[in-house]
Amino acid sequence: MTTPTDITRKTTSRRVARLATEVLAPWVWVLGLPLAIGWHATKTFGGTLLWGLVVGITGSVIPMVVIIRGARRGKWDSHHVTNREGRLIPFIACMISLGGGIALLVLGGAPRQMIALSLAMFASLVVSIAITFALPANGARGWKISIHAAVAAGSAVILTIAYGPWFALVGLAVVLVAWSRVELGDHTTSQATAGSVLGLIMGGFPYWLLT
What we know:
The protein is mainly α. It has one domain. Helices cover 76% and strands 0% of the residues. It has 8 helices and no strands. The radius of gyration is 17 Å and the shape is globular. The termini are far apart.
């Protein structure tokens, strides 16, 4: 039998999960991480803004504009695009935009770390697309990897590589965002776990290799 206390706990849990999902959304990580790496690479305010915003705008702002406009027009369910079939256009928009950003970095003589960051993001995106659409649909919504968890995990490992072992504590945020996606019913535990592993490998390894 469900008690009022159980209902209150469930409501509180879902509120915390919703807050974590919004505050630790992929676009937030992809906007903030390039600024952190830009500072590490240049140690100058101007360099941080220049290269950080190139990656942040092409990797986060432009794709989010596409996603939000699509959500308002009913092309997918929300700005989180939880329905698998709606993810194709946002993925393509992100690839095109981020690819343009990588070209700007290379042509502009950006620091190696910024190019490595963008390439790691691009690699993670390609693998996410492959996993999302290569696996057969299972049920009405299909099997879809957690992009929230992937981006958070990739960001955590890149920050740790750049700034040192203390930044491994950012991994707590990865656990929180993965939990939030499961708590809200947007992903299963296996999907959130797969996203975290994807971020660790495809986000961290290319960045480490290229820097």
